[in-house]
From TrEMBL, chains A, B:
Name of the molecule in the record: Rrf2 family protein (Putative transcriptional regulator)
Pfam families recorded: Rrf2
Taxonomic lineage of the native organism: Bacteria, Pseudomonadati, Bacteroidota, Flavobacteriia, Flavobacteriales
InterPro entries (alphabetical): Tscrpt_reg_Rrf2, WH-like_DNA-bd_sf, WH_DNA-bd_sf
Signal peptide residues on this chain, from the entry's feature table: none
GO molecular function, one term: DNA-binding transcription factor activity
One cellular component term from this protein's GO annotations in UniProt: cytosol
Organism encoding this protein: Robiginitalea biformata (strain ATCC BAA-864 / DSM 15991 / KCTC 12146 / HTCC2501)
PROSITE patterns given in the database record: HTH_RRF2_2
Taxonomic superkingdom: Bacteria
Amino acid sequence: MFSKACEYGIRAVVYIAHKSLEGQRVSLKEIADAIDSPVAFTAKILQQLSRNGLVDSVKGASGGFEMSEGRIREVRLADIVSVVDGNRVYEGCGLGLKKCNEHKPCPVHWEFVEVRDRLKALLETTSIHDMTLGVGSGISYLKR
Amino acid sequence: MFSKACEYGIRAVVYIAHKSLEGQRVSLKEIADAIDSPVAFTAKILQQLSRNGLVDSVKGASGGFEMSEGRIREVRLADIVSVVDGNRVYEGCGLGLKKCNEHKPCPVHWEFVEVRDRLKALLETTSIHDMTLGVGSGISYLKR
DNA sequence: TTTAATTAGGACATTTTTGTCCGATTAAAT
DNA sequence: ATTTAATCGGACAAAAATGTCCTAATTAAA
């Protein structure tokens, strides 16, 4: 569904948000350990997310990553996917046809549109805050 | 959603089925041209589909690929996806967690399950015959 | 002011996916 | 029988995705 990079990105952001809500800034190492991802690769993804304003990064000793509560409530799953994977999840034909559309549909166009619209709605309505809810309480998990 | 290989595979099978219903066996070249795919790469995918009994191949001059009407009605989109891409579309967590399940769900587990189940149902109910319906009549397209 | 901890970012390495080439095999047509 | 048109399958090549390493820049703490 998503690239590995995007999966790590989502997990990382949820972890950062979860810790930020507890008032804690987290380091790259801590993040990678918490979400079970390759450190240096995760760094690249976080750079990308930071440049796009989805997370805040602080350099230097005792630096790390954090998010304001406002952003935690504003930022949607779709924003992360968009930054890391672009729009290929939403756009693009299920059969890989470049010019598949309602006027020239592929054989499964209409059926796929339904599923994709549903996925799109899910990504656009789910905030980072929503995703952190289960994490602290042990209802949902970010590794293993 | 699917790999390129799988996309080519689906388009190829729909084209083969469409032509088979008109009593015509088709060559690799004709297929690749009709669905706008790389010839040699398409050959690999068709070998795989042929080995798995999803299409019939005939060697030698005037050989090519074909499907019986029975198989055209039996074979589902899910069968092609399964052979080419395996089960990664159905199984596997949206966030890439190895052990995400109903007991240890990731933060978006339940929402994703819904979308994926819908996709699964679509793939399992759509037969190749269903997909060929629009192709001859110009309602749906396999290239461009 | 030096040291230690940290992110930023470029270059490189590995793996996977996608794609090509060619010789072997098969079978129809000449 | 020979030629020709086809698939089969192995080896190779290129591109994209994933992952690593190292140096520079930054900042808090000693």
